[in-house]
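2024-03-11 09:14:02 DEBUG pipeline.ingest accepted 1 chain
2024-03-11 09:14:02 DEBUG pipeline.ingest length=256
2024-03-11 09:14:03 DEBUG pipeline.predict start
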Amino acid sequence: MSVRKVITIDEEKCDGCGQCVPACAEGALKIIDGKARLVSETYCDGLGACLGECPQNAMIIEERETKDFNIMAVKKHLADLNSGQSARTNDGDVTTSIPHAECPGSMSRQLRTRESVAISRNETIKDGEPSRLANWPVQITLAPLNAPYFDNARLLIAADCVPFASGNFHAQFLDGRVLLIGCPKLDNMESYVNKLTGILAGNRIQSIEIAYMEVPCCYGLVVLVRMALETSGKNIPAVLRKVSIRGEISEKIVNA
């Protein structure tokens, strides 16, 4: 223990936007239960690179007695984050890790509320229908384990090809739902199961809709979601929608 500078987060001010997370090169910050949290004080170098990224001014650097900054622990932590494994912090806590993304483009964002999506249906824009995307990022690998938009969400888990095959994807599938996408053939199934298990276990998910292509390999998306549901111990109603290559819904199964 020593007296040094370390980040402090005002939870009352923090709205869980997540903008601070990718700004921390050490991976010391994480959104947990809708708030930014310090994963471990040993990961925080106290330099404050995250401060300018907080729109709520919920973060300050203060000098206090705390555990020493440990660069070797940080390197191991980042390696675990990049591999998507669980890591034990020096504080003794176990955290389910997500790939550490330094790119601001993978920052967790809530784009629309349910109310704003409803309003958007009546909007007209120059180049066609307005987007009904309510969250970012959408790729399963990049998705946070906890975000405000997951609370009581109607979750849509779609295969990568579905939005391209379906000419009316936003209105037919996405309206009022939180989106996650992935490819069961080309991506890491085990990683997807682990990520989805964490999301389902750590959030109140109202329902799940799985949209997948008619090609045989795409059914793997249904399999991995079922595995995640079983592992999470959650009983969440699910609907399957199989999409043909021509974009038609060839099969719909409720309570699958």
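2024-03-11 09:14:41 DEBUG pipeline.report Residues 23 and 50 are 5 Å apart (CA to CA).
2024-03-11 09:14:41 DEBUG pipeline.predict end
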